[in-house]
Design a protein that fits this description.
The protein is of the alpha/beta class and 305 residues long. The protein has 8 helices and 6 strands, in the order ααββαααββββααα.
């Protein structure tokens, strides 16, 4: 009898414990469903910035080519400056939940001088009209320029790290000395753009148009190849690369060959051999490599340069 009572008591405890466990599971599931409901909407889409609606991340709520007044533009960018401080004082996730990000998607900023603001990191400029705009020396890290029109825009010395320029029109843009580090340039139009002394490092230039672009003293280390159908007329293919980072130039050389642009292909070949020879002389891995670099300089570059 004692044994039977013991077993019944033990079974009762098991059921009680199981009920408590099941209750905990139900509470946890309900809590997770609540979080999904709360965060299924982008924080930026749910917030309002001092009467300025922040468009949803998936699209832009503004009419095409709306024109902000000078006062409104300064107000938007002043809030943006404050908002950016959140990335240094908070975690990125916490900062993204706060209001203030500059939303200028689809804005008409024709010939606007934005260079005075110095820092437009992470601003939303999708589909904006920025023809002839002044963006010199600006920090544009993670800035969104998707589908923007930047024809003839002045981006001299701009810092374009992880900048999204997919499908952007940058024809005849001034990118002298610009730093395009890990930028997204897929399907962008750089026809006639001036990239003199620019640094294209790790950038994705798949299907990018480079016809009539100027590449004088340009550091050329993209991660992908440009559109081989839009390479004619490249001027001053005087490019260089870091040690062991010539793959971008090799891809350009092949694209030029496939396009039948023999003259430009020869220029790319010369830049490739010249760069490899320079690194062999300056940072050789073996004495034989150092000797080979000097022989290439004497026998190849001096006779064909």
């Amino acid at each position: 009898m004692k044994m039977l009572l013991y077993r019944l008591n033990f079974r009762e405890k098991q059921i009680s414990h199981g009920q408590r466990s099941m209750g905990s599971v139900i509470v946890t599931v309900l809590f997770l469903l609540y979080l999904v409901q709360v965060f299924s909407v982008s924080p930026a889409a749910a917030l309002e910035t001092n009467g300025l609606n922040v468009p949803k991340d998936a699209g832009c709520s503004y009419d095409k080519y709306w024109e902000p007044t000078k006062e409104r533009l300064h107000k938007i960018l002043a809030f943006h400056k404050t908002w950016l401080k959140g990335f240094s004082n908070k975690s990125p996730c916490e900062a993204l939940k706060t209001t203030g990000r500059a939303s200028l998607c689809r804005a008409c900023l024709f010939n606007s001088d934005l260079s005075v603001f110095k820092n437009l990191n992470r601003a939303d400029l999708r589909e904006a009209l920025l023809v002839g705009a002044q963006l010199k020396e600006l920090s544009l890290e993670f800035t969104d320029f998707r589908d923007a029109i930047l024809m003839g825009a002045h981006l001299e010395g701009a810092y374009l790290h992880n900048t999204d320029l997919r499908n952007a029109t940058l024809s005849a843009a001034h990118l002298n000395g610009a730093r395009l580090f890990d930028s997204k340039l897929q399907n962008a139009d750089l026809s006639g753009a001036d990239l003199t002394e620019a640094k294209i490092v790790g950038a994705d230039i798949k299907n990018t148009r480079l016809s009539n672009a100027t590449l004088k003293r340009t550091r050329y280390e993209p991660a992908t190849a440009p559109s081989k159908g839009h390479l004619a007329g490249i001027e001053g293919l005087d490019v260089y690369f870091g040690k062991g980072r010539e793959s971008g130039l090799v891809m350009l050389q092949k694209a030029l060959r496939d396009a039948g642009l023999r003259g430009l292909e020869r220029e790319a070949t010369y830049a490739l051999k010249s760069g490899r020879s320079r690194w062999a002389r300056e940072e050789p891995d073996t004495p034989l490599e150092w000797l080979d670099g000097w022989l290439r300089l004497i026998l190849f570059e001096k006779t064909t340069g």
